[in-house]
Automatic annotation (TrEMBL):
Annotated InterPro entries: B-gal_1-like, BetaGal1-like_ABD1, BetaGal_gal-bd, Galactose-bd-like_sf, GH, Gly_Hdrlase_35_cat, Glycoside_Hdrlase_35
Family label: Belongs to the glycosyl hydrolase 35 family.
Name of the protein in question: Beta-galactosidase family protein
Residues covered by the Beta-galactosidase 1-like first all-beta domain: 373-488
Keyword Kinase: no
Recorded superkingdom: Bacteria
């Protein structure tokens, strides 16, 4: 049984210990590939793996917990332990991580409380969650024969608030549920965030997050330590070796040799956790969103991050550049050749069936009625789409009728008798829409997409994090009522009836079949489609959008089976192809430059 201590340095079994850690989010990597990623971390020459734990994935509905499959955190920890890796766990209620609402479960939006605060209602929900989660982690601590070194109390809280009572309450909840390993906080390395987000007065280790200028950033941290009389080791808990990507923006890249040297600059002064070592994929609807003043920018499905391993978990140039420098600096380290998984280009598969969403609502939704529209959260829905339908009478005969959608989020499509009249997104929503009504009454409907809740910054608790039609739809100067409301979480598409009619330029489902002898990683090329999500054997593997920059969806071999596999595309823009191409590599779109 090992002993880990934080004094002037990190000590393991009373010997100085430098933490060489890399981030792997188990919830972004298919479980069949966990060993592959962890092995490659060990092969690089590192000794520790770090992971967040997303509350919203483990408790998607209040009181309903999931720790199976891709959420089996204990299995991930056990694999790391068997490979001889130590573990840093960040079970803080908020994780950021470019993840839907920073890991907070959307059902909290229904509660009358303030998140990330000492609000007793919020802390009560956190306590209920921790009672289930933390005993699973406690058994894997060093003093229980496991390999967990440390736990995070809160994540970059100094970039959000400064309520020490809240931080102490979270810390206390963690102790009450059996966590005995050292705690830490992580924040930006400058004084304002360290002062606001740390518990340095309570001897909780302070770590910093940055991606360059190690000497300057560590010096700011050291000054903060000196000010409080702490003789602690320096650690960068998130050294950003790449960056995430957003729809419609160029893929961000960092030079491998520059990155490798920057990592070594950190290691000259302290310990490190590479964020990310393996980024993985935002499967399903779990991408986060960057907050902006006017138009927020949702992140793409791929969380490749230009990391040390690519999205599939294979080594990039950064792996080899960094390993080469590590061998020079640490000649007695343990190194190995990385594992490499092949991907397969399965070629083209032909469209089998297609059917309209409007003719399948009863097969994919439990619709309800109400005079006023309800948002997703009121109906117990967290992610996906929601559809609203009503009937209106014609009031104007000599000119187009005026419509306004008020407070809808995030993207809306307005239909009259199932014919698309307008698409609006954030900065457009609320502007006037005009069209003629040529009969006494029409069916008016609105499809709303939650494109991902903000995961960082001041908008985290804004009303914009509630998704749906908002205050409603105005015709002329009044709100209209008598809505049929159909939640579309699309968590199960097996009930689709492809014998139902398909219509041009409507949201629709497209079914393909892929027959494989031996499953292999592959990439779905969504060129020719507009916007939507893809399901493989009823698993949502993520969103696509022709805005780019990435036009493929990574499909891990673990989601395929021998024999016939069903691929269903949900497309909202009326664009589709008669075939689907499966490639052996990701594909990017050349984005047009302004000016």
């Amino acid at each position: 049984m090992h002993r880990f201590e934080i004094r002037d340095e990190f000590y393991l079994d009373n010997e100085p210990f430098q933490i060489l850690s890399g981030s792997i989010h188990y919830f972004r990597v298919h479980p069949d590939d966990w060993y592959h990623s962890l092995y490659n971390l060990k092969a690089l020459g590192f000794n520790t793996v770090e992971t967040y734990i997303p509350w919203n994935a483990h408790e998607p509905k209040k009181g309903q917990f999931n720790f199976e499959g891709i959420l089996d955190i204990e299995h991930f920890i056990q694999l790391a332990t068997e490979l001889g890796l130590y573990i840093i766990v960040r079970p803080s209620p908020y994780i950021c991580a470019e993840w839907e609402w920073g890991g907070l479960p959307a059902w909290l939006l229904n509660e009358n409380m303030r998140v990330r605060s000492a609000d007793p209602v919020y802390l009560g929900h956190l306590k209920d969650y921790y009672k289930v989660l933390l005993p699973k982690l406690a058994k894997h601590q060093l003093d229980n024969g496991g390999n967990i070194l440390m736990f995070q109390v809160e994540n970059e809280y100094g970039s959000y608030g400064e309520e020490k009572a809240y931080l102490r309450a979270v810390s206390q909840l963690m102790r009450e549920e059996g966590l005995t390993a050292p705690f830490f906080t992580s924040d930006g390395p400058w004084k304002a965030t360290l002062r606001a987000g740390s518990l340095i007065e309570d001897d909780v280790l302070v770590t910093g997050n940055f991606g360059s200028r190690a000497q300057k950033n560590f010096q700011m941290m050291q000054d903060f330590f000196d000010e409080h009389g702490k003789k602690w080791p320096l650690m960068c808990m998130e050294f950003w070796d790449g960056w995430f990507n957003r729809w419609g923006e160029d893929v961000i890249r960092r030079d491998p040799d520059e990155l490798a040297q920057s990592v070594m600059d950190v290691l000259k002064q302290g310990s490190i956790n590479l964020y990310m070592f393996h980024g993985g994929t935002n499967f399903g609807f779990m991408n986060g969103c960057s907050a902006r003043n006017q138009t927020d920018l949702p992140q793409v499905t791929s969380y490749d991050y230009d990391a040390i391993l690519d999205e599939a978990g294979n080594p990039t140039r950064k792996f080899y550049a960094l390993q080469s420098l590590l061998k020079e600096a640490y000649p007695n380290g343990t190194y190995a050749e990385p594992l490499i998984k092949p991907a397969k280009a399965y070629g083209s598969i032909v469209l089998k069936d297609k059917t309209s969403l409007f003719n399948n609502l009863e097969n994919v939704s439990d619709c309800v009625s109400g005079f006023y529209p309800k948002n997703m959260e009121e109906l117990g829905q967290s992610t996906g789409y929601i559809y609203y339908k009503t009937e209106i009478q014609r009031d104007v005969t000599d000119k187009p009728e005026k419509f306004r959608i008020i407070d809808a989020r995030d993207r809306v499509q307005l239909y009259a008798d199932q014919v698309l009249k307008a698409t609006q997104y954030q900065h457009d929503i609320g502007t006037e829409i005009f069209f003629d009504i040529d009969k006494e009454s029409i069916e008016l409907s609105v499809l709303v997409e939650n494109m991902g809740r903000v995961n960082y910054g001041s908008k985290l608790t804004a009303p914009t994090q509630k998704k749906g039609l908002g205050r409603g739809l105005m015709v002329d100067l009044h709100y209209i009522g008598n809505w049929e409301i159909c939640p579309l979480p699309l968590d199960n598409v097996e009930g689709l009836d492809f014998s139902q009619e398909w219509a041009d330029n409507q949201p629709a489902f497209y079914r393909f079949e892929l027959e494989v002898d031996e499953p292999s990683d592959t990439y779905l090329d969504m060129t020719g489609f507009g916007k939507g999500v893809v399901f493989v054997n009823n698993v949502n593997i993520g969103r696509y959008w022709d805005r780019g920059p990435i036009v493929t969806l990574y499909l891990p071999k673990g989601y395929l089976k021998k024999g016939v596999n069903e691929i269903v595309v949900f497309e909202t823009e009326g664009c589709y192809r008669e075939y689907l191409e499966l490639s052996d590599r990701p594909k990017q779109k050349a984005l047009e430059k302004e000016g």
